Amino acid sequence: MAKHLFTSESVSEGHPDKIADQISDAVLDAILEQDPKARVACETYVKTGMVMVGGEITTSAWVDIEELTRETVREIGYVHSDMGFDADSCAVLNTIGKQSPDINQGVDKEDPKEQGAGDQGIMFGYATNETDILMPAPITYSHRLVQKQAEVRKNGTLPWLRPDAKSQVTFQYDQGKIVGIDAVVLSTQHCDSISTPDLREAVMEEIIKPVLPSEWINKETNFFINPTGRFVIGGPMGDCGLTGRKIIVDTYGGAARHGGGAFSGKDPSKVDRSAAYAARYVAKNIVAAGMADRCEIQLSYAIGVADPTSIMVETFGTEKVSHDIIVEAVRQNFDLRPYGLQEMLNLLQPIYKKTAAYGTSVAKSSLGKRQTKQQFCVSLLVCNYSYSEYLLQKSPQKILRAFLFY
């Protein structure tokens, strides 16, 4: 591939849509803690002075939705009325109902291993070796910028920062390899007392420079820090927020395809979430094992049916072993039925709220216990002599990395 630019964006935990995602996942976690078999589809809407929590939930658990909502908003940092949104004074409306019994009869089976998918749909997972966490660099560093913004806001380094922020990073590529950063955008909410020049200097020194590798920055790199000059009104006062509106931020920043389904607020019987995590997990292990430099997995399901209706493996011409061998190894080593997904990644635990910001759910995609990939790599090495020879000749360390990567 010739020289090109690629850009991804991220948003902070205080962005209105991310507030909604975190509330939805806080509800999910609180329910799963009491009832791991609950069926949860929780949606949240936030606007100035108000949170509405709705959806369909079937469970034996009892959760104080109002207090849980206020606690989540408080943790994010909306604790003063002058921000236009305050954890202690906002109204909380609960409009939750039960999941349709028509769906239940297709999902719940006498044999748990035959549990059907909670809906039809397509899901994608992706991995690339351009970063140490096998994620695309543009989305990785966009996340790290807004994570750093939250860190210096909360630890008092820059106390005039407010919770809402957005980042965007444009990388330069040459023949598929990173050669530099072309542009950086960071917009952060702030209190009225800080001047624009002081804000820009502090953000550069305390957020951007500590995060972005200096070898990718040059005199041609463009920096846009609060380019409008003022960002006092933000959060739900500036824009309403909804669960599930940041699906590209939550995944690969546009570097891979997306099936369209959101994650937050959904229990793992919903393959929009669990199968997307599993697809990432499969792709990540293919790349970690040195079988390809890039890998994208597509899974598809029919509602009420356990087995995927299709499995697709795309390695973009970067594979080091026959495509058929990779596909067969995936089929042999990963149980991609809904029950198998839950067992493989331990998805019935209350682990979701911490994944609702900064893309951590797909970046890690190893939220609980994991199937060890020694089994996966041994399968490939045994069934494909040419791949074993390739690894030994190219890089013996690759075999060790394939066995140890998490």
TrEMBL record:
Recorded catalytic activity of this chain's protein: L-methionine + ATP + H2O = S-adenosyl-L-methionine + phosphate + diphosphate
Signal peptide from the UniProt entry: none
E.C. numbers: 2.5.1.6
Cofactor: binding comment: Binds 1 potassium ion per subunit. Binds 2 divalent ions per subunit.
Annotated protein name in UniProt: S-adenosylmethionine synthase
Family of the protein in this entry: Belongs to the AdoMet synthase family.
Role noted for this protein: Catalyzes the formation of S-adenosylmethionine (AdoMet) from methionine and ATP. The overall synthetic reaction is composed of two sequential steps, AdoMet formation and the subsequent tripolyphosphate hydrolysis which occurs prior to release of AdoMet from the enzyme.
Positions annotated to bind Mg(2+): 17
Residues binding K(+): 43
Sequence ranges assigned to domain S-adenosylmethionine synthetase central in this UniProt record: 114-231
Cellular compartment(s): Cytoplasm
Organism of this sequence: Vibrio maritimus
